[in-house]
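Appendix B. Chain record.
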Amino acid sequence: MVEKIKVLYVEDEPFLARVVKESLESRNFDVSHVSDGGHALDVFESFRPDICVLDVMLPKKDGFTLAKEIRLQNLNIPIIFLTAKTQTQDLLQGFDSGGNDYLKKPFSMEELIIRIHNLLKLTTQNAFRKNSETNKEKVCLGKYTFYPKRYELHFESAARKLSHRETLLLSLLTRDLEYPVLRQEILQTIWGDDSFYNSRNLDVYISKLRDYLSRDPEIQITTLKGVGYKVNMHKG
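Structure tokens predicted for this chain:
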């Protein structure tokens, strides 16, 4: 089952909020709706969304201020502003406060969903690109040595050539061994979308990597249900 995209949606207009929330949920999004800016940051920290959709004019705390506070918590999460304002100064203020996109009210649900998917795709691609640019020449995994730039996985004196997607996947999984990698991030980064077909492809690639790493029983790719994957190294 494909994991749902988690959306923090902050909107004080009850009718619009209900329509947007129900429409997104009917399209397999997980939506946490907050009706004011006052406690939205607390919800952000506990809900841990993939993307934020913020109205600008909010009670207690406006969307621009909220975006700045979110940016202090997370530099990379995409933020979309919803507003009736169209002045250039307002647009600039929105981007200066950390917004990635701006959607004018009234808007269609189709446009909002397209923008959400596009922003998530761009964000994961940029994150992977930054990771690739600073990637080490090699990654040590127990008795294995992974050479990302050479597309090779070595075990003792034997070398296995990896495909492009196998290399991308193993690079993501070994980016930071202390933290899991979200299944959603892998699908968006490597395949560009999270369709059922691509999700099944990912399952196949995970199985292949597990097989490649099977000669060292201390290396395991663990599935975290509803989250993603984590590479664990067990010391004898």
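Further analysis of this model is presented in Appendix C.
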